[in-house]
Write a structure and sequence with these properties.
With 301 residues, the chain is an alpha+beta fold. It contains ten helices and nine strands. It has one domain: q2cbj1_9rhob like domain (Jelly Rolls), CATH 2.60.120.620. The protein is globular and about 55 Å long. α2 packs across α3 and α5 runs antiparallel to α6. The strands form two sheets. The chain has a six-stranded antiparallel beta sheet.
Length: 301
């Protein structure tokens, strides 16, 4: 019954035309009025609650760059051994399965698969004290991992570019509650041949909506043409172990397609704020959500 109720909320409220239209008009993204409004409220609620419980914010100057631009890439690789072990484990897992028609092979914590138990010790090592401090500086509170997933993108054999990877090769923003952030680790070297993720700044993203140039799906190429001409596109390329933070609810982004015979392996942490401090291992074991779109976020700490 709960699952049916959640689906009805998603269809008739979160994804309703009026909710999405109001979100575009007011917040200049595709998250909708509900998810953006709740995210805005959470940005005030969790820091206030955390402060009352003894949280002390640590300032990090790079946080300002992330908030202004919408993404921040760090190529200072200090996790080579862990990334190598993780990449070997992930490669072994992928060779047991056939590539889906979408072109994306994925393993998500929301699926509660037993295969993930082998990954958790390595994932825990990646979330260092420095990363936790950065996240706390960004949120002004403690942070909480609510989902993580590993995926491999290849060129889909039977789909067009815009239909690939669940249509995420189109320029888009995510629909999660807007306080959330994503942290990406490259599990393999990523060059132009591997189909890197692309993004544009929050300012450029807002301009796309202001000029009424956002279309999804972008079947006529109008959004792509506007962005190519009017925005600066950043390609996330780097060595295995490179990491980047992205405000994917506000910054338009897309997946590009790897060349024939190439692939791109990524690990993604979907992270929100919390007034409660939890060990990383506990966060990983409790990361059973897929994506939080609206009212549900009010009851998660």
């Amino acid at each position: 019954m709960k699952k049916l109720f959640d689906l009805l909320i998603l269809k008739f409220i979160i994804r309703s035309k009026i909710n999405l239209w109001l979100g575009r008009i007011i917040f200049k993204n595709t998250g909708g009025l509900v998810s953006n409004s709740i995210g805005t409220y959470i940005k005030r609620r969790d820091p206030s609650k955390a402060k009352k419980l003894g949280f002390h914010k640590k300032e990090n100057p790079m946080v300002n760059s992330l908030k202004e631009k919408g993404f921040l890439m760090l190529n200072d690789i200090q996790n080579e051994k862990t990334i190598t072990e993780l990449a070997v484990l992930w490669d072994k897992y992928t060779h047991q399965l056939e590539l889906p028609e979408s072109g994306r092979l994925e393993l998500s914590s929301a699926d509660k698969a037993k295969d993930l138990e082998e990954f958790i010790p390595l994932l825990e090592k990646l979330i260092t004290e420095d990363i936790q401090d950065f996240l706390e500086s960004y949120f002004g509170s403690y942070s909480r991992i609510i989902n993580y997933h590993l995926y491999r993108n290849r060129k889909p054999p039977h789909l067009s570019e815009l239909d690939s990877y669940g249509a995420t090769a189109n320029w888009h923003t995510d629909g999660s509650t807007s306080e959330s952030i994503k942290l990406f680790f490259m599990l393999s070297d990523v060059t132009e041949n591997n189909g890197p993720m692309q993004a544009i700044s929050i300012e450029d993203s807002r301009n796309v909506f202001i000029k009424n140039s956002f279309f999804f799906p972008d079947s006529k190429g109008e959004t792509r043409k506007f962005i190519n001409e009017e925005a600066h596109i950043f390609n996330f390329q780097g060595k295995a172990g490179s990491l980047y933070y992205a405000l994917t609810n506000d910054a338009l982004h897309r997946a590009t397609i790897p060349k024939d015979g190439e692939h791109r392996d990524l690990l993604v942490f979907y992270i929100t704020s919390s007034s409660k401090k939890r060990p990383v291992n506990q966060q990983l074991k409790e990361a059973n959500y897929r994506e939080i779109y609206g009212l549900q976020r009010l009851f998660i700490n």
